[in-house]
TrEMBL record:
InterPro entries listed in its UniProt record: Biofilm_reg_signaling (IPR052155), EAL_dom (IPR001633), EAL_sf (IPR035919), GGDEF_dom (IPR000160), Nucleotide_cyclase (IPR029787), Rev_trsase/Diguanyl_cyclase (IPR043128)
Organism expressing this protein natively: Rhodococcus sovatensis
Descriptive protein name: Bifunctional diguanylate cyclase/phosphodiesterase
The organism's place on the tree of life at top rank: Bacteria
Domain EAL, residue spans: 332-587
Length: 590
């Protein structure tokens, strides 16, 4: 018979039947060697047994601890004949429990591919039997032909597997996932289908920091963790990059989906990954699809949209698709499309918020804050589009635009006010900080606008600092050589440590507005502010308070030794023209 992967089981059974009849035997079987699990697996037998126990004692037998006959199948390289009568108690017990009888004469013929025993043909006779050399030669020839079938079947299965599975993780790929979803959603009796779209956080940054090998190891570890913790309850697929999809088995509801999402997130958080905090390593979007109402592609897209909203919002790592999520997704797409054009056409605008010395009231610096005059939605604050920029790889391009325009504006102010002595503060995204050539870019912009490096302060977040300390150290050292100074923004909300502050060339800490707004009223905030001020003093760093909105907060900061601040009490962010007017005066009386 012509044999391939589709009909191999039928061919094997027919072969065993004919061999039993031709050699006047009682049984014949074919066992496969599972090298990964070190077991021998029954794949065909004749005659078929009836009333087979579950589990079948003969189906899968581990080599470790097996009796000598089964153990021999792992490395058999020649025809083996065995007389079972009266010996090998473990073998007799196993076979008799599964078949009701034990053959007295047994012959095993290896199927060898390369140097490995891939399968074993076995033949048994209830009574004793003498074999001739011609019969052995015939069995060897049959084994050689069967090996060819095995090789063909294995090649087809490898091809089919590679077409439906992700090479790196062994999980099913997008094509196989969609085929599975189509089948589930075509079955009107299957009930609601829960789809969970899991997106690993900061994977690209991890690969950039530690190398692609580390990124690959992280993906593989995540796949193993998901398989271990939720593989029994869901089909798990990898779509590529840092994206995984879980489709829960059986009918599911939102509650069940959320519980599984939490289990998956916990599995990711427990992975030991240097440089990544455990608090928000992944986000999950949930879509509940009803058969007959939604196609597989759309159901998957809805889960993806929910995951993106979770990633952008930053306040919830699990989001279920709803009409509201749909509207947010449409807004996000609108912003993404127009933001790219706005950056490239210089359609954005900078506002500037002064920083003052609380004692002298002198303006010491201004912080550049980007705004966007959206063509349809009006003037948008940074919170409306910067998270989208970070989630869509536009953060670097946006940051470069802000750096260029802020230093150009500082140069124009210096032309109008030759005695101007202030610093320009510019926020730097993690994407810029880890990007190749960032130091060179800063140097070129400074030179282009004739700005001294000491007039530029770059503000980075704590998260950006701790992602890759060594890379950050090299970048900051390069900026220090230009005279550029560094402030850690929103200090107290991230994951910096004393060792980081000691190791990195940092010049200032900015106390996050969350700890400043209620100063004079909230004791807990005061304790944190005192700690940050003391920490800055210990390391010889400047300290600046953000979000000062009341005189009580300003006076409390002065009493604590923090004399530099910015906030609505002094000035809201203003246009370049209004900022220049403030600079002409030079002070702000609060």
């Amino acid at each position: 018979m012509s044999a391939d992967a589709s009909n191999a089981p039928v061919v094997y059974v027919a072969l065993l039947r004919d061999l039993v009849n031709s050699f006047e035997l009682d049984i014949a079987f074919l066992r496969h060697t599972d090298f990964e699990n070190r077991t021998t697996v029954l794949i065909a037998e004749w005659p078929p047994r009836t009333n087979v126990a579950h589990p079948d004692p003969l189906h899968t037998v581990p080599f470790d601890g097996a009796d000598p006959i089964f153990a021999a199948a792992e490395s058999l390289d020649s025809v083996l004949t065995v007389c079972v009568d009266g010996g090998i108690a473990d073998y007799r017990t196993r076979v008799e429990s599964a078949s009701g009888f034990v053959p007295q004469s047994l012959v095993a013929v290896p199927l060898i591919a390369g140097a490995a025993t891939v399968e074993v043909l076995g033949f048994g006779k209830l009574a004793g039997r003498d074999w001739t050399e011609d019969e052995f030669n015939a069995l060897r020839a049959i084994a050689a032909l069967t090996t060819q079938v095995h090789t063909r079947v294995a090649a087809e299965e490898r091809f089919r597997y590679s077409a439906t599975h992700d090479e790196q993780t062994g999980l099913v790929n997008r094509g196989a996932l969609l085929d599975y979803l189509r089948g589930r959603l075509a079955d009107h009796t299957s009930g609601p289908v829960a789809i969970l779209f899991l997106d690993l956080g900061r994977f690209e940054a991890l690969s950039n920091f530690l190398g692609h090998l580390a990124g690959d190891e992280y993906i593989a570890a995540a796949a193993r963790a998901l398989t271990r913790d939720v593989g029994a309850t869901a089909l798990i697929a990898r779509l590529g990059g840092d994206e995984f999809v879980l489709v829960l088995h059986g009918p599911s509801n939102a509650h069940h989906a959320h519980l599984t999402a939490r289990t998956a997130l916990d599995a990711i958080r427990l992975l030991d990954v240097p440089g990544l905090d455990r608090s928000r390593r992944a986000t999950v979007g949930i879509s509940i699809a009803h058969p007959g109402r939604v196609a597989a592609d759309e159901a998957l897209q809805r889960a993806d949209q929910a995951a993106l909203i979770a990633k952008v919002n930053g306040d919830n790592d699990v989001v279920q698709f709803t009409d509201s999520v749909q509207r947010q997704s449409e807004l996000r797409s609108d912003i993404e499309i127009h933001l790219r054009t706005a950056i490239r056409n210089d359609s954005l605008v900078l506002y500037f918020q002064p920083e003052i010395d609380l004692i002298t009231k002198r303006i010491t610096a201004v912080e550049a804050l980007v705004r966007w005059q959206h063509p349809h939605r009006g003037l948008l604050p940074p919170a409306a589009f910067i998270p989208v920029a970070e989630a869509t790889n536009l953060a670097g391009e946006l940051g470069s635009w802000v750096l260029e325009q802020s230093l150009r504006t500082l140069g124009e102010w210096a032309t109008s006010l030759p005695d101007l002595d202030i610093s320009m503060r510019v926020n730097v995204s993690p994407a810029q900080l880890v990007g190749a050539g960032f130091v060179d870019e800063v140097e070129k912009v400074l030179r282009r606008h004739s700005i001294e490096g000491s007039s530029l302060w770059l503000e980075i977040t704590e998260v950006a600092v701790v992602r890759d300390i060594e890379h950050t150290r090299r970048t900051l050292a390069g900026l220090r050589r230009l005279g550029v100074r560094i402030a850690i923004d929103d200090f107290g909300t991230g994951f910096s440590s004393l060792s980081h502050l000691k190791a990195l060339p940092v010049d200032a800490l900015k106390i996050d507005r969350a700890f400043v707004a209620d100063l004079g009223f909230a004791g807990g905030d005061l304790a944190i502010v005192d700690s940050v001020i003391g920490l800055a003093a210990s390391f010889g760093l400047d300290v600046i308070a953000e979000g000062v909105e009341t005189l009580d907060a300003a006076n409390t900061l002065i009493d604590r030794g923090c004399t530099r601040a910015q906030g609505y009490l002094m000035s809201r962010p203003v246009s370049a023209v209004d900022a220049l007017a403030l600079l002409r005066v030079g002070t702000i009386d609060i």
